[in-house]
Design goal:
- The chain starts with about 40 loop residues before the first helix and ends in a 6-residue tail after the last helix.
- The protein folds into two domains: about 110 residues, Phosphorylase Kinase, domain 1 (2-Layer Sandwich); about 290 residues, Aminoglycoside 3'-phosphotransferase, Chain: A, domain 2.
- It is about 45% helix and about 10% strand.
- The relative contact order is 0.12.
- The chain has a five-stranded antiparallel β-sheet with strand order 1-2-3-7-6, sandwiched between helices. A three-stranded antiparallel β-sheet has the order 8-10-11. The chain has a two-stranded antiparallel ribbon with strand order 4-5.
- The longest helix is centred in the C-terminal third of the chain and has 32 residues.
- By secondary structure, it is of the alpha+beta class.
Length: about 450
C-alpha cells in the first residue's frame, strides 16, 4: 500500500471541519491565558467542544493540572464527557517570565500530533479543536491512563508497551522521511518546522551543551561532584557530544516527536498513548528511540531507590526486556515498511529491486546508522536529566541523597561509555549487558 502525506495547511484557529465561528471568545482574539474561572465562558460557544461537553457551561467543571515545565493544562468535565485543554504560556513555566518562549510552539505541537495520527493511527490523543492565536489545543481526555514514569517508579507493568512504542518510533521515522514522502512535500515541511527554532534551541542548550560545563541553570545531587568532574573534563567525550549536536542541527532525516521520554507517554495496563510533541522537529531518525531508551535506563538504574530486594531484580530485568522488545519491534516494523512502503527518493526500487538487486545491505546500513545515533543520544540524555535544568522523578523521588547519588553515578558513567562507544555497540543485547555491568559498579 502506498501512503502519501500532504502538508497540513489549515486556516488559523481552525481544526479541519470547524467553521469560522469556532473561535475562542476574546476581544480581537488577543492572546490571554485561560483560568479555571474564565475557561467555560471563553470556550463555551465552540461547537467541537460543546459536542463533547454539552452546551450548558454551568455544568462544566475545570481543574488546572499542568505539572510540566512549559504549559497550562486543564481537565474540563461535564455530565456529558471530558476534554483536555492545553495552552502555551509565553515563557518557560518551570523558570518564569525571565525565560520567554514564543506561543507558536502550540502550532508545531498541533501539526505534529496530526502527522503522528496519520502515520501511526491510534497512537496519540484525538484532537478536537486548535486555536493558533490563543495557542491552545483541545484534545481527548485520556482516562484511566497514567504517566508512564509514575508507573515505572511504582513498579507497574504495561502489556504491549514495547510493541506500541517500537512501532510508533518506526512508523513516524519512516513515513516522515525521504524513504516515504514525496520529496517536494518533505522539503517544504522541513522548512516549516525550522520555525520551531526556540524549542530546538532549548534542546541544543539543555541537552547537548549545558551538562558539560557549569551553566547557570544546572544543578545536581549533593555528592556527585567527583563523577561530574570526570565528565566535564573528558574532552574526547565532549567532542563526541558536539558531533551528535551537529547531527541534530544538520540531519533533517524525519519529523520527530523531539521529547519522547517516559513523562510524554500515558498508559493503562494494556494501552499506550504518546503526548506532548511540541518539540517536533526534523532531525536524526535515531533521536526519538534513543531518548526513549535513555528513560528506560534511568528507570532501571533508579529502581534500588524504589523497590525492596524481593522485587528489585525481577523488575529491573523486566525493564531491560522492555528495552530489548521495544528496539526489536522498531527494527521489525522499520524493515516491514522498507519492503512495502519505500516510495520516496531514497534507495528507490528503480535502482535495486527493479534491476534484480537486493536492497537488504542498504537496509542493514540504515538500521546500523539509526542504532549508532540512538545510542549516542541515549548517553547524552542520561547526562542531561541529572546535570541540566529539568531532572527526572525516577531519581528525584529518592529521598536518601546518598543512595540517589550512588545510583545516579552509575547512570552517568554508563552514559559516558555510550557516547564514546556508540559506533562499537552493534546490537541491543550488548547495550543491556552493559547496563547490567554498570548496575554492579560503585563510583562513589
Amino acid at each position: 500500500m502506498i501512503i502519501v502525506f500532504a502538508i497540513l495547511e489549515l486556516p488559523r484557529n481552525l481544526q479541519a471541519g470547524n467553521t469560522g465561528e469556532d473561535r475562542v471568545t476574546n476581544q480581537q482574539n488577543v492572546y490571554e491565558p485561560l483560568t479555571v474561572e474564565t475557561l467555560s465562558t471563553r470556550l463555551g460557544d465552540i461547537g467541537s467542544i460543546t459536542d463533547r461537553l454539552g452546551p450548558d457551561t454551568d455544568s462544566w467543571s475545570s481543574e488546572e493540572v499542568g505539572d510540566g515545565n512549559l504549559n497550562l493544562v486543564f481537565i474540563v468535565k461535564s455530565p456529558a464527557g471530558a476534554v483536555i485543554v492545553k495552552q502555551a504560556l509565553p515563557y518557560v513555566r518551570l523558570v518564569g517570565d525571565s525565560w520567554p518562549l514564543p506561543l507558536n510552539r502550540a502550532f508545531f505541537e498541533y501539526h505534529t500530533l496530526m502527522r503522528q495520527a496519520a502515520r501511526d493511527p491510534g497512537s496519540v490523543p484525538e484532537i478536537f479543536y486548535f486555536d493558533d492565536d490563543q495557542a491552545l489545543i483541545v484534545m481527548e481526555f485520556l482516562t484511566p491512563h497514567v504517566i508512564l514514569r509514575k508507573m515505572l517508579i511504582a513498579g507497574e507493568k504495561v502489556s504491549g508497551l514495547a510493541e506500541t512504542l517500537g512501532n510508533f518510533c518506526a512508523r513516524t521515522a519512516f513515513r516522515g522521511s525521504d524513504l516515504s514522502m514525496v520529496t517536494a512535500k518533505k522539503k517544504a515541511d522541513t522548512a516549516t518546522y525550522q520555525g520551531n527554532s526556540e524549542l530546538m534551541a532549548i534542546t541544543e542548550t539543555l541537552i547537548f551543551t549545558d551538562p558539560y560545563f557549569e551553566a547557570d541553570r544546572n544543578h545536581h545531587t549533593e555528592g556527585l561532584d567527583p563523577v561530574v568532574h570526570v565528565l566535564r573534563n573528558d574532552v574526547v567525550m565532549k567532542v563526541a557530544v558536539q558531533e551528535m549536536l551537529l547531527k541534530f542541527t544538520a540531519n533533517a532525516e524525519t519529523l520527530l516527536h523531539g521529547d519522547l521520554h517516559s513523562g510524554s507517554i500515558m498508559c493503562t495496563e494494556n494501552e499506550t498513548k504518546v503526548i506532548d510533541p511540541e518539540f517536533g522537529f526534523y532531525g536524526p531518525m535515531g533521536f526519538d528511540v534513543g531518548m526513549l531508551i535513555s528513560n528506560y535506563f534511568m528507570a532501571y538504574f533508579s529502581q534500588p531507590g524504589h523497590r525492596g530486594a524481593d522485587e528489585l531484580a525481577g523488575y529491573q530485568e523486566w525493564i531491560l526486556g522492555l528495552i530489548t522488545d521495544t528496539y526489536s519491534a522498531f527494527e521489525a516494523e522499520f524493515t516491514r515498511l522498507w519492503k512495502t512502503e519505500r516510495t520516496g527518493i531514497l534507495f528507490p526500487h528503480s535502482m535495486f529491486e527493479d534491476q534484480g538487486h537486493s536492497a537488504d545491505n542498504a537496509l542493514d546500513g540504515m538500521l546500523g546508522h539509526i542504532l549508532c545515533d540512538a545510542i549516542g543520544i541515549c548517553g547524552i540524555e542520561m547526562h542531561r536529566r541529572l546535570l541540566s535544568l529539568a531532572h527526572n522523578a525516577d531519581f528525584e523521588e529518592i529521598d536518601d541523597v546518598a543512595i540517589r547519588a550512588r545510583l545516579e553515578a552509575r547512570n552517568l558513567m554508563m552514559g559516558r561509555e555510550l557516547i564514546l562507544q556508540r559506533g562499537e555497540i552493534n546490537n541491543i543485547g550488548a547495550l543491556c549487558a552493559l547496563a547490567r555491568k554498570y548496575n554492579e559498579e560503585t563510583f562513589l
